[in-house]
Amino acid sequence: MQPTPSQPSQHAGQESDSWQPIPFNATDWQRDGAPTYRIEDGVLVFDGDGRGRLMTQRAYSDFELQVEFRLSAGANNGIAMRAPLGFQASRYGMEVQILDDAAHEPLDMRSACGALYGLYPAVKSAVRPAGQWNAIHIRCIGRRVQVTLNGERIVDADLNAIRDREQLRERPGFLRESGHIGFIQHNGRVEFRNLRLRELPATRPPNQPPDGFTALFNGRNLSGWQSWYADPPDIARMTADERQQAQARANAQYLKHWRVHDGELVFDGQGVHLITEKPYGDFELWLDWQIEAGGDSGIYLRDTPQVQIWDNPDGSGGLYNNEQHPNRPRVKADRPPGQWNRFRILMLGERVTVWLNETLVVHDVPLENYWDRGAPLPVIGAYLAAGARHAPALPQSLYPTTLTRLPSTRNLPCTNSRIASM
Q: Does any domain span residue 322?
């Protein structure tokens, strides 16, 4: 039987009494933009054409949410999920549409009530006529989102299955791990009541990839990795035998500067880059990293430098070697040296989007071909690489170490060819 708002579904390690009511007040909620709303006897009422959101004070990752709502004729609202503050929730997070379907015929099911707006359609219209109360139940676990409206399951979405390039570029926020929950005002009178929520904490062992991803680093050894041995223009001039010999020499000379310690990939500040043996084209990459004070490193994409990692006031995540396009992050989102950070990097064609600690720092910026500024970036066939450079000496350490863990990737369709999905 499908879960309904009166029958909360179960999750491993969770009990039904873990549901918590979230009252509408200034303690638990905050304005984002200029919404026009009021609270009447515990009911949240949006009325008019204000533009903005009412968002939770804190962020959530995996959760279940239940709320009742009532629409006036033609009204339009939305429920934001995993959304950042200050950005359009349906693009930079996710939005579950709240809509009077009857007033919007012919109905596009991607914008029907309960649909993941612009991303994933509802299978049917299940909203009640204007003026009647509805009950919606949203379950959001990793990249799986389910929506039950008035007892009918209308969305069961595997977000990893969304591989349309334009959707990924236009609405990258659905890939976020966490963010705020909220209500998005569009038009008309919309009321919400009896909101309750329970978090579903997920535990994943170190170096175990999320669903839909394949681990690049196993946490035990350098299997699947090799040393950088020459720049791409030089490699292009080598014969196959010369490449094989150069690779073997580089592995013997430089792999000793990379080691695995307690599930972490550690660089001693000497030697050269570590690169994957397997080539990649379009992909989504998760990567945890930390550096010491003064550290300087980066992530090469398709053999091309680089998504920057450093201890610098500009912050990490920028496309450092760009000359014609932006090369600095939008904001600094780094944690202090010695603490772990998380990159999520989306590569589509020549364009790169980077989240750092769930903050969007680069959005849809072309990565320039460092080796030949007049040439396009290779579509496929180059490597994804972890770059490293020397940094100033520090007490008790010749060079600051660069550590990475949990590198995971999923392949996406490429422009001229298709990589097999993970």
A: yes
